[in-house]
Amino acid sequence: MKLAPAEHQAVMWEVRLREGEIGAAVLQEFDRWRRAESVNEQAWNALQQRLSRFGGGRSPASLAMAQALRTPATERRRALRAAFGLLVLGAGTWGIREGMHGLGMDADWQSAVGERGEGRLADGTPLAFDANSRIYLAGSAQSPLLKLQQGQVLLKSWPARDDALTVSTAHGSVSTEGATFNVGKLHARSVVSVSSGSALLRPDGGRPVLVSEGETFYFDGKSAQQAETGFGAVSAWIRGVCVADRTPLAELLEIFSRYRKGLLRVSGRATSLQISGVFRLDDIERALMQVADILPVRIQRYGGYLTVLAAA
Hints:
Layout: H1 5-16, H2 24-36, H3 38-53, H4 60-68, H5 77-89, H6 93-102, E1 109-110, E2 117-120, E3 126-129, E4 134-139, E5 144-156, E6 165-169, E7 172-176, E8 179-185, E9 190-197, E10 199-203, E11 209-211, E12 216-219, E13 224-227, H7 231-234, E14 241-248, H8 249-257, E15 263-267, E16 274-280, H9 284-294, E17 297-302, E18 306-311
Parallel strand pairs: 5-6, 15-18
Antiparallel strand pairs: 1-4, 2-3, 3-5, 4-5, 5-8, 6-7, 7-10, 8-9, 9-12, 10-11, 12-13, 14-16, 17-18
Helix pairs in contact: 1-3, 2-3, 4-5, 5-6
């Protein structure tokens, strides 16, 4: 069984709209494709209807596909196709394993869009994680390694550890023998903020940095840069709030997407904009209107699933 051309194209558009920045030319091409033939519009709408039903599904296909179509990560194109195969084509064991792992559906801790979570390590260390987070546990019980694939995690490590507790992201790792700290994987960088104790930040390709109590650093795999933003602002998500301080607009929309189904994208000159403000995460539509009030951008909606912020 093969997908019809329009169905296949709809999936590929779903992938493409999640990769990189969306320019005006891409949006125009997408609009032309949708309007070219009625079967294209039907295929796109049918895909969105499937998405709207996945929230309560617990089958491997539904879980993998739902997460695949919410994850703006270029490296997951293969996993998305595998997940779609699970749903539509009934792929075998390889497809299930590949799709679920590539999308983080086999993570030790995971949370759905709009739902934060909590957990504990083997030694009792408590952790809280943001909505739409994926965390893998590795290392040992004495020296655990948490691989943060996406989202944010806050840990309150006991002050008397014999070995280090480490959290890693795509941009580096943070280790401590006793600290309360927040690590987040953001759009093109990661963040660590320490409330008490200290932690050692090792950016991939950069020099190690000691992060002391009250300090916050952003790191992108090449270097680390200290920020004035405090721990309370970085970890405000635990209270359902996002505090932006000269935050890139694309990064803010990625945070919003943890609490809202559908695609939130930034286009054209708006990609260079930064924003400061306080936004409630339980009402993303209102937060988007706040953004439009603060920045010279307009909100463009393409059906009920794709929302683009473009320069006004």
